[in-house]
Each structure stands twice: as structure tokens, then as C-alpha cells.
Amino acid sequence: MNAITSAPAVQTVHVPLGERAYDILIGPGLIARAGAEISSRLKGRKAAIVTDEHVAPLYLEALVASLDAAGIVAAKVVLPAGEKTKSFEHLITVCDKVLEARVERNDCVIALGGGVIGDLSGFAAGIIRRGVRFVQVPTSLLAQVDSSVGGKTGINSRHGKNLIGVFHQPDLVLADTDVLNTLSEREFRAGYAEVAKYGLIDKPDFFAWLEANWKAVFTGGSARIEAIATSCQAKADVVVADERENGQRALLNLGHTFGHALEAATAYDSSRLVHGEGVSIGMVLAHEFSARMNLASPDDARRVERHLREVGLPTRMSEIPGELPPAETLMDAIAQDKKVKSGKLTFILTRGIGQSFVADDIPASEVISFLREKHP
Ligand SMILES: NC(=O)c1ccc[n+]([C@@H]2O[C@H](COP(=O)([O-])OP(=O)(O)OC[C@H]3O[C@@H](n4cnc5c(N)ncnc54)[C@H](O)[C@@H]3O)[C@@H](O)[C@H]2O)c1
Ligand SMILES: O=C(O)C(=O)C[C@@H](O)[C@H](O)[C@H](O)COP(=O)(O)O
Ligand SMILES: [Zn+2]
């Protein structure tokens, strides 16, 4: 055996969106390289780093030092961790601090954190001065495989999840895979639900690969980087084909119509349910609902559930701690979904593993009876 094992290389996924094109760099050591990567792409020499209280003590100073070495002066905004931070209150704080730091259009807001920080600070970057540059330094698995890519940004409203926001693409994504070593197992698993999602949308071979290799993905090393790069490429392909979700981008919402309703029903309380867990339960429900509508075999739903359960994700509403509201309340949340058109529900359903499709005009009565069965 060779005594010298080389470190996994950095992979690049390019997102060819015309004048909004950008690179996603994936691999170890990228926070240390952030200053050089940003200064070679952006003109500005000022930045505001937005992060949360868990990530700040771990990675903020390393990022500031890297920017400093490249001649970029950075202001810091540290927010509470958790889904409740995606709020108007924290949006105002971010806007105030970024303006206070005199961040101009060519300067940038840098999101250092998970999807919560990415969605919130991306929204701020999209509206400050009608748009300043935006760099994502995603630190959770979920953010590295999904939320840092594609330009959906926003906050939650008392009416529902992600209901207020803008599309604002990042100028660069730096997914430093070293930082995943400090992520809790629960949060790693939650991010894995979005990885499995890409297989279930239209990549049955990737789903089968995950079934065989998920332990290596959890352990780290090249299998993990491979899974992240495959996910980013899958997302980039969909986003490039339909940036503003006029059609096929809705596929990325597999499991989310149910999942978002469950997040709203648990009042965005991360101790009960986090986004990826809602997506896991939601994907099983979407496969079961498809079987109920005679679109897919119940065996497919069982296979999806088996895998998600094997990695330790929740797959049933009954696993969510505490009381859930009745099916009618879940249905109210579903009715606020952004995919609703002329009052008609759109769901991402499936004909089998990796054969998801956008199903318009799903009768609310079918969904209600299904939810009553699942959550009597
Ligand atoms: N915009 C999109 O396309 C998109 C896609 C998917 C999800 N989302 C959104 O993303 C959010 C979920 O993101 P998330 O799962 O990253 O949640 P999160 O941002 O709350 O991060 C999860 C937890 O992990 C901590 N953390 C993050 N990185 C860490 C690290 N390296 N070490 C230690 N702790 C770390 C955070 O502080 C937090 O407590 C949801 O709001 C969801 O709606 C958006
Ligand atoms: O990027 C997309 O498009 C997605 O749907 C990705 C989802 O994983 C993500 O959770 C997204 O924020 C959900 O979008 P929404 O439009 O339903 O809020
Ligand atoms: Zn999601």
C-alpha cells in the first residue's frame, strides 16, 4: 500500500447562467483560500460576513484572516442559530449592519453557515442597494448540496415557509468539506435527505449508489465529496434549465409540500423538526401518495423509507415529538405553498424511484383523506 495518501482534490461545478454564471468549489481547505478566490472574481474590497452563534466560534476568524490577507476588510454579523432566525427581525439587523459597513454593490455579503444563514443573508444581499454581490460559504451538508446553489433566498412568515424572498444568485460558492467534521450527526443526516432527493427525482443509479455507499458518505473522504459534487451538478442542471421555477425546477420540491407544512405545524422549532427531517418524512409521504393514486408501486415507497430509516432519518409523522395539529391544519399550510396556481394544488409525485414529475391540479379532498389516514 502506498504510504502517502493524497488529499481529495477540489472539484468545480460551473453554473452557466449567462451574466449570472458562477462556480461552486467543493473540497478541503477552501475557507483558507476564500480571500484569494473572492478577490480574483469580485472587484470590491469590502465584505460583510453573516454567520450564526454555532459557526462563528469555529470558522469566522479563519475566514476573516483569509479575506484580510487578500486585502478585503470584513464586518461581522453573528445571529442566533436555528430556523426562527429566518425572520423580518433578523433581516432588518442584517440590512442595518451591511449598510453600516458601507458595503457597496461591487462588495459582497458572505453567508458563512447553514441554509438558514444562506437564505436570510442572500435575501438581504438581493434587496440592499437593489442587489449587492453575494458569496456562499456553506457549512452544513444541506447548505453544501442544496441551499447555497440556485439563488432561492428568503424568510418565513406566520403564513408559511419561505413565503417572502427573492431570487438572487450567488457570485461564488465555496463548500469547504473540512467543516462538515464539526456538524452534529443529526444535522448531517438532515442534509443527507436532500442528497437522496436528487436520486429520487431523476437519478435512480445515484439512489442505488447511495444505498450501497451511504456509510462512506457519512464517514467522509472522497465518497462524501463525490456525493456533494453529484448533488450540486444535479441542482445546477435543473436551475440552469428553469431558473425561476416556471416548470421543472419544482421537481426540487420533492417531499417539500408535506415537509414545509410539518415545519410550519411545529412552529419552526428545530428541537422538534429540522428542514431535512421534514423533507425525509415528506418524500416518503410523496411516494406513498403516488402509490395511493395508482401511479407507482407501494414497493418503491417501502424502498425509500427503508433507506432513509437505515441512515437514521425520521420517515413518519408520528416520530415528530409533541402533538401535531389535525390534517385540516396541515392542509391550510399546504394551501399556502408557492406552487399553488389559481387555488389548485401542485405536488411532486412519482412513477417510481427516480421518476418524479410535477403533478398539477391534485384534488385537495384526496390529500386530506390521505393525511387523515397517515395522521388519524
Ligand atoms: N434556498 C434553497 O434553495 C434552500 C434549499 C434547501 C434548504 N433551504 C433552507 O435551508 C434551511 C436549513 O438549512 P440547514 O439544514 O443548513 O440548517 P441551519 O442553517 O439551521 O444549520 C443547521 C445547524 O447546524 C449548525 N452548523 C452549521 N454548520 C456547522 C458546522 N460546520 N459545524 C457545526 N455546526 C454547524 C448551525 O448553527 C445550525 O445549528 C431551511 O431554512 C431551508 O428552508 C433552502
Ligand atoms: O432550489 C429549489 O428550487 C428547491 O426547491 C430546493 C429546496 O430544497 C429548498 O428547500 C427550497 O427552499 C424550497 O423552495 P420553496 O420555493 O418551496 O420555498
Ligand atoms: Zn429543501
From TrEMBL:
Residues 191-340 form the 3-dehydroquinate synthase C-terminal domain. Residues 77-189 form the 3-dehydroquinate synthase N-terminal domain. One of its GO terms (cellular component) is cytoplasm. Its cofactor is Co(2+); Zn(2+); NAD(+). One of its GO terms (molecular function) is metal ion binding. Zn(2+) binds at residues 194, 256, 275. Its EC number is 4.2.3.4. GO terms for biological process: amino acid biosynthetic process; aromatic amino acid family biosynthetic process; chorismate biosynthetic process. NAD(+) binds at residues 115-119, 139-140, 152, 161. Keywords: Amino-acid biosynthesis, Aromatic amino acid biosynthesis, Cobalt, Cytoplasm, Lyase, Metal-binding, NAD, Nucleotide-binding, Zinc. Its main location: cytoplasm. It is found in: Cytoplasm. InterPro entries: Dehydroquinate_synthase, DHQ_synth_AroB, DHQ_synth_fam, DHQS/DOIS_N, DHQS_C. Pathway: Metabolic intermediate biosynthesis; chorismate biosynthesis; chorismate from D-erythrose 4-phosphate and phosphoenolpyruvate: step 2/7. It holds the Pfam family DHQS_C. It catalyses: 7-phospho-2-dehydro-3-deoxy-D-arabino-heptonate = 3-dehydroquinate + phosphate. HAMAP family: DHQ_synthase. Catalyzes the conversion of 3-deoxy-D-arabino-heptulosonate 7-phosphate (DAHP) to dehydroquinate (DHQ). Belongs to the sugar phosphate cyclases superfamily. Dehydroquinate synthase family. This is 3-dehydroquinate synthase. It comes from Rhizobium pisi.
